[in-house]
Sequence to fold (876 residues):
Amino acid sequence: MESLTLDMIFVMAMIAVAVFLFIVEWVRVDVVAILVMVALPLIHLVTPKQAFSGLSSNAVVSIIAVIIIGAGLDKTGVVNNLVTPVLRLAGNSPSRVVVAVSVTVAGISSFMQNIGAAALFLPAIQRISKKLSIPISQLLMPIGFSAILGGTITLVGSSPLILLNDLLVPFKLEPFSLFDVTPIGLALVATGIMSFIFFGRIMLPKPKAAKSEGKSERQDEERKEPAADDLDHVRELHTPGDFTHYREPVRVADLRARFLVNVVGLTEPPDFKVISPRDTTVVRSDVDLVVCGRAEDIARMAESEGMTLKPQLEVFADDVNDQNFGTVEAVVAPRSNLVNKTLKELEFEDRFQVTPLTIGRHDETYRSEIAEMPLRVGDVLQLHGTWKRLQYLQSARNLLFTMPIEVEEIQTEKAIVAGFWLAAALTMVIVFKIQLSVCLMTGALGMILTRVLTIDEAYASVDWRTVFLLGGLIPLGLATEKTGTAAWIAHTVLGAMGTVSPVVLICVIGLLSTFFTLVISNVGATVLLVPLVVNMAVAAKADPRMAALTVGLATSNSFVLPTHQVNALYMGPGQYRSVDFLRAGCVITVLFLVVMVGMMYIVYGI
Amino acid sequence: MAIVSISRGSYSQGKAVAEKVAERLGYECLSRDVLLQASDQFNIPEITLEHAIKDAPSILERFSHGRQRYVAYIQSALTRNLCRDNVVYHGLAGHVLLKNVSHVLKVRIIADMGLRVAIVMKREKLGQKEARSYIAKLDSERRKWTRSLYGVDPWDPTLYDLLLNLPRFEVNDAVELICRSAEMKQFKTTPESNKEMEDLALACQIKAAVVEKHPDVFVASKYGNVLVYCTEGDRHARKLKAIIGELCSTIEGVNNVEVHAGVTPPANAV
Fold:
């Protein structure tokens, strides 16, 4: 074994700094990767050419292409075309719905980024939940986990697997082909789905209605939080003739501040109707207004302000109806421009002419001063407005909408074209055995040339954070191998472990990968561990390709904490808490490792 | 009807002015009673509260949040009393807290240094030099105290509606001016301004209830919609919501309670 050199010490220090920065999150993960990319040639651990080789690697090109293809599928409403037949097949049974949608999501996720597939399906799942009255918490977690597990079905399903072949190049090991992992991935997906079907009662949180039955008497006497769907109350009121007498003007914003009631329409004398009035609009005497809010708040406002609460819509009956208007839930999308901004800063109401009613975050619903709350990924905004304005807002792609399917624009002919290019890319890989990155980029280019999406839309869809994360960490893996650091660590660890069988080694690698993926990104874990485990496998006379494959698979084993992007996205709409992920995640994590090792034994004979 | 809040430099005859204003208007005069009430309600010795309200915080106190707690108790007792209306309050912790309540007439009484020195020499039996140092020290402490608690300089004239310089005005002249101002229509209690006062009292009440375990929260109330601002994460916010929800369920006039984590509190939050 080589003795410890200064270069090895520098590499280990670099790894330690990177891991530390990933954990503490003082800077974003992609900034850490760029820092590494710049520091490595400065310390002469790699050449400048090698330092930036990651950005032109097959992995990075493949991920860019996969993202563009995913954006094309998203834009053409491919998901909506799938949802209806899937639901018809599943019927009304919650278990069948979970299985059907999970399988579909897993399938999509095998060719798209997990987060892309999860985001695509979120509005559809919310619709299904409402339509079939299945609590959303019973649907989102199984489907979210399936999206993550689906990433293990093909070599393009997740960033670690996309990265794998590039990391094997320095070792001159045979690359994996697109479907080499498929038997293992399918087994993992099946295990994940079945565990929720059979053990869902233990693994999933109880729906809120069931929870409240278990409350003590004392808690029952306290103020109960009304259910979020109370806000669907749309009522019409009439202001008295002396409403404006002897008082300061009452504006729309004042009614919201005082009574947490949103005015979605009012008349200006004599009978001019204003829909989605601005905050500064004055409410006059003897006018009609239509409001949205909790029943108790509307009643309180009527009593306090002397308004007449009408039993049904009269003046606004034709304007505020389901044909023209609606209330939708919209989730703040990953990488949305709205993240960390407030509705006030965005001038949201003025720009989009829709009324934000509430913000849902984890299991809380916020109604008061919501314009001052910085938005986060996964926040659920309840919005009221005309379908036309909501569709305009949807087209900005910052929010994932639960729109009625009849209202959504579905470009069926474009969906076919998008599907064609995906199939073409896969055919090139499978039949003609062309390099994966070339095939995927061909598919992406095909979508752009056939106007499934424009080149600017393609550029806008690329997640540069992932690109730089991959591009920046690949040279670190290279440095780890080139300096002999990986070999040194491998020999040291093996020395401590003693002689182990290949199966035990794979199990240990699986556990290490699972641990590291929870504390640093899956890409970071892959880049750091692959050189190490390959060396360990060579030293232990096990198959180094299988060791690397174990890392590529097990770094998707991220269920225990809501750190994975999919879990973070579903946490808000599903009203989950961290402990919910801990409970279900522990079960899935153990099953994942068992099934993965078992399948590798069966399929590859490790 | 109004509330008159009189801020006074030490030994500036402010107390005498306040008492005469209260007598003339038929208002209640509050100062030390607030401390007594807070002491009774929260079981803190009066001397501790007095120390908290008079002296500038030491470095250690800034970390222990003890002073914040005591001031929260005093503010809770004060605002509860002020909801009764028709009150003259002269003491610390008042005028900046009440700056957003429109029917509060905020008065600052200052006095010429010569007059103050003469008063101190007479009362405290000190020489001229010692008296001057003593007054300077008191002024400095009070200025630091207000700055540390509210982030404002109590000598900033824009904090007040009326600033009176004795002995340019005799005490009776000052009383006359204050009483006339208090009777002006802009200082009359309206339903809206009364609601502002009730909201402030509610916010102070909730703050006093949670400040011991959660010293870094801010509380605001608007028309009975209580908003609590905390800096910690969502898990902490949920625990806080449960505590405050339970507390508010026993208080009249609370329509909604929310805890906003990671949101900058507004200027009027306590």
